[in-house]
């Protein structure tokens, strides 16, 4: 395929390839020159540029290093948008930051959050979305793979601080067979016992003392910068302006102060596993 035949609007992969070629030519590099800088072959570079081979995370990061790209306008971000096209706006970018965050705070309603899901629990949620016609079977597989990828990013040195507040509906809502739910609740207890985690369950009776009604994530990066991610049923929004993130962080601390302690919350989860109301 000649470069003139490549239509950037043909597909996300074509747009990725066209941008790769444009940046390469702007620097006066040949495909061989970019290959040396990324430690890939020139044949591989040509295949990505012409959308014959899809980009990978490793390739995208190598290209970002070669071109000196950082922030929002990276090939890694473009790759994640290609791979996770079924996800809400802003979420692929958020996941990239989450994997490097020093502190992760989250509040969830209705379901166990992805960072704490067992593979079986995650699969049931994804399969249910397929049955509703919301996503394809291939996209469901990508969602389950993303859960594993996000969890793997937590196993690093030093590990991030992970603070989790769950609305009581998360542990009360049955997902799958009883054995699946029991294993998921057991996973919550194991997670709560890690030295770098804090798990609390916000009971229904908190009522209006609960400041949030929708899922929310707050990240603290290594340089102490803050960002938040919140979503509705149809849209997600990543916020990096401290004027908006700091009030959310304050409300989150108030939520933690109102919610039962980790010990009390784990006791509630264990009682639920035993069938105790």
Automatic annotation (TrEMBL):
Question: Which SMART domains would you find in this protein's record?
Answer: HTH_XRE (SM00530)
InterPro entries linked: Cro/C1-type_HTH, DUF5753, Lambda_DNA-bd_dom_sf
| Every HTH cro/C1-type domain range | 20-75
Q: Which PROSITE patterns match?
A: HTH_CROC1
Q: What is this protein called?
A: Helix-turn-helix domain-containing protein
Originating species: Streptomyces milbemycinicus
């Amino acid at each position: 395929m000649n470069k003139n035949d490549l239509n950037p609007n043909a597909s996300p992969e074509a747009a990725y390839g066209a941008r790769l070629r444009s940046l390469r030519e702007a620097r006066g590099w040949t495909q061989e020159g970019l290959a040396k800088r990324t430690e890939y072959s020139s044949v591989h570079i040509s295949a990505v540029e012409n959308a014959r081979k899809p980009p990978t995370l490793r390739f995208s990061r190598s290209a970002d290093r070669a071109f000196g790209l950082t922030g929002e306008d990276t090939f890694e971000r473009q790759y994640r948008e290609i791979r996770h096209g079924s996800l809400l706006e802003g979420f692929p970018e958020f996941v990239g930051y989450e994997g490097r965050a020093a502190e992760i705070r989250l509040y969830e309603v209705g379901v166990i959050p992805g960072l704490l899901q067992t593979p079986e629990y995650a699969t049931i949620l994804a399969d249910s979305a397929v049955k509703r016609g919301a996503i394809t079977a291939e996209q469901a597989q990508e969602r389950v793979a993303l859960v594993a990828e996000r969890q793997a990013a937590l196993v690093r040195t030093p590990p991030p601080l992970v603070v989790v507040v769950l609305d009581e509906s998360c542990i009360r809502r049955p997902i799958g067979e009883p054995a699946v739910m029991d294993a998921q609740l057991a996973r919550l207890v194991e997670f709560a016992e890690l030295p770098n985690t804090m798990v609390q369950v916000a009971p229904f009776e908190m009522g209006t003392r609960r400041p949030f009604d929708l899922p929310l994530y707050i990240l603290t990066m290594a340089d102490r910068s803050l960002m938040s991610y919140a979503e509705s049923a149809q849209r997600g929004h990543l916020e990096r302006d401290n004027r908006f993130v700091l009030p959310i962080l304050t409300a989150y601390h108030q939520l933690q102060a109102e919610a039962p302690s980790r010990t009390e919350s784990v006791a509630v989860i264990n009682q639920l596993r035993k069938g105790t109301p």
